[in-house]
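Usage

Read records sequentially. Each one opens with the input sequence:
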Amino acid sequence: MNEQALACRERVAGSVLSRDLVLKLLLIVPCANGLAARIIAKIHDNGFLSALASSFDVSAIVWLACLAGCLLLAEKVPGGARNLDLAAVALVFSLCLVPILTLNWAALTIAAFYVAAVTRDGSPLYRASLIALAITGPMAWGPELLNAVFEPFQVIDAQLVSLLVGAGQVGRSVEVVDGSARIFIAPGCSSFHNISLALLGWVTATNFFASQDRARNQVFWCLIACSGVLLINVTRIALIGLYPRYYDAIHGQPGEVIANLLSLGWIGAICLLGVRDELRKAV
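and closes with the structure output:
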């Protein structure tokens, strides 16, 4: 009797909402909500034109990942929504209503795990959920991790910069080459910030083009992408140590723009190189 009642309730829920709509909204709503909050905050702080020029403080890789995820949502999921689907919607949407941005990205994390668990492995919706999960890296968990346990990363940064500059390193600081000052690596300047973007680029490329390459090869290209962006920022900090009189130009503009463009180009090139066979077939 209980089984019949449960089946009846699921049929009623399914007749109102399609499972296709519910699962896709689980990914779209928290992602759109988080991006909207970032856009509104940036416009409020800097004005629309300045915010637009800075891409609303959202990396181009994140925007491309969102586009790739949306294109993968074209697949239709048959059947009606199940009770567990509706429970997931209630939880995810409730977290989105709380005015704490981290909880919004937590909602997308939960949604991505849920959609991945209930969809067919390798299906477009499954791959879209993996991209959505990776988006939470640069948008939330990467910065949160660095803020929570920053000191070990800071020391590694200082050690790498010291090797390039050839000057002394003490804890989280490096001496400039002429000995006139020391460089202290602040949380926002860590070379590890862009690693989450490299991971997102790799996840996006391998899932959008449905890479059939062996896991070992995929991890190899991912490590190359991560190592490259790490080296680019370490080199930028090292240049400050070698040429301290040009601190403003290297640390500010145009140094920041050049470093970001190099990182973006490196991530894009390596990730596409890693899926070159799939890309060739798609073209």
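Summary fields computed downstream for this record:
- The mean pLDDT is 84.
- Residues 149-283 form one domain.
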